[in-house]
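Next comes this protein.

***
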Amino acid sequence: MERALIAFDLGTTHLKWVVTDLSGQIILAQNQMPSGVRTDGCHSEQNPLWVYDRIVEVLKDARVQWNIQRLSFSCAMHTLLAVDSEGNPVTQSLTWMDSCAFSAAEHLRKQDVAGDLKRQTGVPLHAMSPLVKWIHLRSTLPKSARPVSLKDYLVFRLTNQWQTDYSTAAASGFLGLNGDWCPLALHYADVSARDLPELHPVTFAIPDTTGQFEVVLGGNDAATAHIHLGIAPDGGVGVLAMGTSGALRTTSAHTVDSPELFCYTMGPTRGYLVGSAFSNIGNYLSWVANLFALSVDEVLHRGIDTVRRGEPLPVAIPYLYGERSPWWREDLHAEWRGLTSLHGRDHLLGSALLSIAAMYLRGLQTLEHQGVPLEDLRIGSGLLDRPFLAQFLSDSLSRPLSLVDAQDASLMGAIDLARSEKGPTTPLIQRYYHPSHSSLYERTLERVSILAAYQKS
C-alpha cells in the first residue's frame, strides 16, 4: 500500500481531516463532520470520548487504503477537560465559547495579580481561558483531577503518554511566555507542573500504542495556519482568519504587551502569536442568516451590496457571544441601534457586515499602534475564500489582501508538521485583492468609534 499521512483539525464547528502522500500532495479530498459541540446557556461542550471514537473510525478506514505513517493534529485554542489519575475524563471538553467561568474571570480581573498573570502568560483573563475555567471548576472536581486540552487527551489515548506542544499550552493560561509553566498561574490553579503534560515542539512525534504509526503533536489552529502560510517570526506579515470565530494576528519575534491583544509563545525559535480574537464572526453570521431564513452566502451578498450602495444603516452591535478582543468582556450583548421605519432586512444585513469589518480594522490599528507594522496581509480558506467577501474586507481595511492556498490552512499546516523532516510546503499566492472603494474605509473607521463608545455605555 502507498505510504501516507493523515491530519485532523479539531475545530469548534467541524472535525476535519485529510490524507496526503509523503510529499504533502492530497490523495483524499478534505472531509469533515460536525464536531459534536453542544451549546446551552453558558455551556459549550464536546464529548471527548465521542471525538476520540470518530478519529479512530476515520483512521481505521484510511488504513484500509493506505499505509499511514504519521498522524498529526491542529486544534481550536482554549479547550479544557479534567481527567482523573487514570486519564479518564471527569468533565466534558469545554470550548472557548463556554462562558460559565464568567464570575471567576471577573473576580480575577479585580485582583492586584491580574496584570501580572496577563504579562507573564500573554493570555487575557476571560472565561475562554482554560486557566480561568479550571479555577472556576476546581472545587467541584476530585482531588486527583488534572487539567488538559482536548488534543492532549487524544494524544494520550493514541500513545498512552501525556505530551503537549508549546502552542497549545500557551493558549491555556498555565504557560509563561518564557516557555515554562508559570508559577503564578499554577499557584492560583492549585496544581503543580507534575500535573501537566510534558512540553515539546509542534513537530515532536510519539509512537502509537500499536507501534504502527507515529503521532505528531501538531499545534493550535493559529500556529498550524501560520506555519502553512509561511509567516516568518518577524511581525511583518499578518493573517486574517474568518471562521466560526475570527482573528487578525501575526508572528512576532518578541512579546507584545497590550491589554487588547493576546500573546502566545509558539515554542523555541518560532516566535509569538500576537493579535486580536473575535468571538462573533461565522457564528454571528449564521444566527443572522437563520433569523431571516437566508443562507450565509445570501447574507453576505445582500449585506455587502447594501453597504456598497452607501445607504444609511443602523448600527449592528454584534456581540451575540460576548466579546474577546479588544474588550475581553463576556457580558456584552448584541442588538441593532438607530433603527427607523426606512430600514429593511438588507439594511440590517449590511450593518452586520460593516460591524464585522470594523472589528478587524480595530485589530489592525491596535497591532500597528503597538509597533507591529503589517506590510502584508494574508488570508487562507474559510469565509474569506469567497472573492466578494475578500474584496469587501480589503476595501474596509484599505489594505491589499493575498489569498494563499485554497485548502484549509490550519489542517494543511498539521500535514506540514507531519512531514517536518522535509519542511513545510512553500505557500503560493493564488489571488490578490486591492482596495478600490475608499469611502468604505471611511464608513468602517466610523463604525470602529461607534462600537468603542457602545462598550463604555
